[in-house]
Amino acid sequence: MAENPPTSRIARTRRFGGLVAGQGIRWAGTRAANALRSDEAADAATGDRAAATARELVKQLGQMRGAAMKIGQVLSTVEFTAIPESEREEFKATLASLRDDVPPLPFKAIEKLMQEELEMPVAQAFADFEPEAFAAASIGQVHRATTKDGRLVAVKVQYPGIAEAVETDLRNMQMLFPLIRRLAPGLDVNALAGELRERIADELDYEVEAQHHRAMERGWRGHPLVFIPPVDTALSRRRILVTEFMAGRRFDVVKTLPDADRDRFGEIVFRFFFGTLNHLRRAAGDPHPGNYLFLEDGRVGFLDFGLMRVVDADYLAGERALAQAITRGDAAEVKAGLARLGYLPNPEEFEPDLLLGQLRMAASWYLEPGFRRLTSADVAAIIEEGSSPRSPYFAQMRRQTIPPQALLIRRMESLVFATLGDVRAGADWHALGSEFWGDAAPSTPLGEQDAAFWAR
Q: Where is each ABC1 atypical kinase-like domain found (predicted)?
C-alpha cells in the first residue's frame, strides 16, 4: 500500500520546485563536464542523467498522484529527441510505470470520502465491499463490491484531496517546461499544457466520466465483439463511479495465448479505438492494456473513459483526408493537410516529399498493405527511426507541433500500436485501417460483423 499523497498547495508546490531546481543543477553540471569529454563519453553521461531524471520524475510525480501523475503518464508517450538513442526507451519505460505500477491506498484512507459521497456508511450502501483495491491509477483506485440486490460491481473511488490539489498541479506544471523542453525540443509544451488542463478537469469529475462511459456503452451496446459494462447511476457520485463488474483474462494472460486468440484480441482492440474515433468522434486518451479484458465469449471488454475528447467533425474529416493522401503518395496534399490541421507552425519551412516520407515511416505498420505480425521490436524500431537525430526527418520534426485536437488521437495511436506489438498480434493492418479512413469494405469476418452493427 502507498502513503497518502500530499494535498496542500505549499507541499505540492515544494515538490515541483524541488524536482525542477535539483534536476536543473544536475543537468547544468552534466553539460559543463561534457565539454571536456569525448562525444561517446558525453552521450553516455547524458544518458545516465536522463535515466536519473526519469527515476526522480517517477518518484516525485508518482507520490503526488492526481494531475502530477497524469503529467508523467502523458510524458511517457512523448519522443525525447534530446536523449541519446540507447537510453530513450528506458527513459519512457520508467515514466510509463506511472501508468502501470500504481500502488493503492489503504481502505481507511478512502473510507471517510466514500461515506461523505454516499451520505451513509459503506456497509449500509453495499451488501459486501472488499477493502483491498484490485486496481489503482493516477486519480483513484477500484474495489470489488456487491450491491444490496446481489449484483457484483466495480467501485472506482477518487483519492481524498486530489481534486483540491489539481489546480495547484496545473499551475506548477509550468515549472516543468524548461526540463521538458530540454528533453523534447520539438514539443509544443503550451499546447500540451492546455489540453491536459481541459482533459484533467473532466477526468476529476466522475459524473463527467460517467457521462463519457454511458455514451460509450450506448454507442457499443449489443456489439458482437465489444462489451462496455453499464454504469450504476444510483450508486455513482462525483467522486465515486460504480459499474457492472467485468471478469475476463487480463493482458499478461492474453500474451500467452495461441496466435489465433491473440490475433482476434488485437483486431478487436484496433477496431474498438479506430471505430470509436470514426463512428462516435471520440478519442480515448488512456488506451493502455490494463483497461481491457479478453472475455470468455470472445469479446473484449473495455474500461476507463475519463480521459476523452469529442473531436470536431471537420477536424476528423481533415485527419481522414490526410491518411488518404499519405496512402496515395500525394506529397503536396499531405503538406497542405498538415498545415490546415495545425501541425506546421510555418508551412513554408517544410518540404512536401520529406513530410510524406516521415509520415509513411511513422505509420508504416498500418499504411503498408499485407499481413504483418507486430512485435515489441517493431514498435521500438519505428519509434527509434522516427526520433533518431540521424533520421533524415529529425530536423523537420523538431519544428512541428501537435494540435490540441490531435493530442489524444496521436496518444491513442501510439498506445494501441505498442499494445499490438506487446501482444504480438497479426493482421493486414492497412486493410483494417482503410475501413475507417477510406470507407473500404470489410476485410475480415470480424469486420463483416462490425460493419453490420454500425449499419443498423
A: 98-335
